[in-house]
Amino acid sequence: MRYLSTRGRPDDPRPGFSDILLEGLAPDGGLYLPETYPRADAGVLASWRILLGSGGYPALAHAILSEYIDDVPSDDLRAICERAYNDSVFATADIVPVSELDGGLWLAHLSDGPTAAFKDLAMQLLGQLFEYELARRGQELNILGATSGDTGSAAEYAMLGRHGVRVFMLTPAGRMTPFQQAQMFSLDDPAIVNVAVEGVFDDCQDLVKAVAGDLAFKQRYSLGAVNSINWARLVAQVVYYVAAWLRVSSTDDEVVDFCVPTGNFGNIMAGHVARMMGVPIGRLVLATNENNVLDEFFRTGVYRVRSAAETQATSSPSMDISKASNFERFVFDLLGRDADRVRELFAVQLPAQGFFDLSGTPEFAGLADRFGFVSGSSTHADRLASIAQVWQQDGVLIDPHTADGVQVARRFVRPGVPLVVTETALPVKFAETIVEAVGREPERPERFAGIEDLPRHVVDLPNDAAALKSLIAARVGH
Ligand SMILES: *Cc1c(COP(=O)(O)O)cnc(C)c1O
After folding, report:
1. Which domain, by its residues, includes 319?
2. For residue 117, what is the DSSP state?
3. Please, which residues bridge with residue 4 across strands?
4. Residue 240's pLDDT band (boundaries 50, 70, 90)?
5. Which residue of 107, 184, 201, 322 is most buried, as measured by CB atoms within 10 A?
6. 119 is annotated as an active-site residue
């Protein structure tokens, strides 16, 4: 399998999986996608059902990833999947269990990993792949990132103990929930460096850009990233769509719909890939919160990014985005993989005018039929109502992001078609909103007992690139 860029030219080189693993964007500013989506026909789907039954989630992961990764020996890839997906890493050996709710809805539980958010499913695999590939190349990597919560902690727990990898993670001082702070700052390992920056999340991101933008420094200290646009993260997520479909369906042609709480379009893009492969996914229901950039596109055909000032701070904070970093991948497929048009939209129109408009095009007109997408958005009041309703009807507490999914999913239930909402986090991460919705504290899984009382490992830093550079130089030590 070779990979191409959404902004590529016909004669560009086409790298393999291991070459794009440690990279972010393609050199032309586009995003990598496989040349073609491998086709899962009826025989393949039947074999996956048997495999999940006999070898569990890691065996299914190995089979699906093998379609996209042909430059890692198969036995090594199998061992990587087994190390990433087992019951010492996840709370259940099922990795992604499903449960049924009232009214035709199901939940796919994606939050049983170390940091209680679905990002663990991709990050755990990435940690194993990084360690493997760095050892093979005799290289080291210092990951530099900024987080407002879920991504940074998932990255730290995935890279913890991985040889050759160090993490510098910037957080806005005092701005994450106490639980999120405790999750990150309780890690006691010299290779995990938590940095609390005097400032807001945007300041952290600007610092990362300033330091990683100094190419000499970047090279000298082998700086890298764990972006949400990394293809390895995306392909890891394809596996749980297949696992959830297998667990909810009883025959190999049974159609299942999915509803996905969406921010950067990473999670739902993996659902799109699974559907393109031929997994019988009917509809992909995209759910946003008040920051409805994507819902607006799927309803109107206009993609209009927001400014930082226009982006609201909501009670489903991991979906508070102003532009969706993975969306270009979908537009590439929507436009029949026409890289010239994608380049014109994302590299010319968007920077120049802040939006592009596909409303009059035949591609947009055929979008729902060809790709199954429909969408809706949710508000704080909707979110609280959904949390309360699922709690009262089903006795299940869902987190605010999952609640956005349930809220929008109810509008699109089709008789006789199961609709699976991807549960993106556990409620314990967002206790304040849960208390507001149902008047009680969410249950705290055993593994998170007392984490706020553990010693904190965090370096305070002024909002200053030179200070960050000296910190990195001191810790890397050359
Ligand atoms: C990251 C995140 C999302 C958004 O996922 P995307 O892949 O960015 O669409 C939703 N919910 C939670 C809890 C998250 O951490």
Report:
1. 98-115+231-438
2. B
3. 33
4. very high
5. 184
6. yes
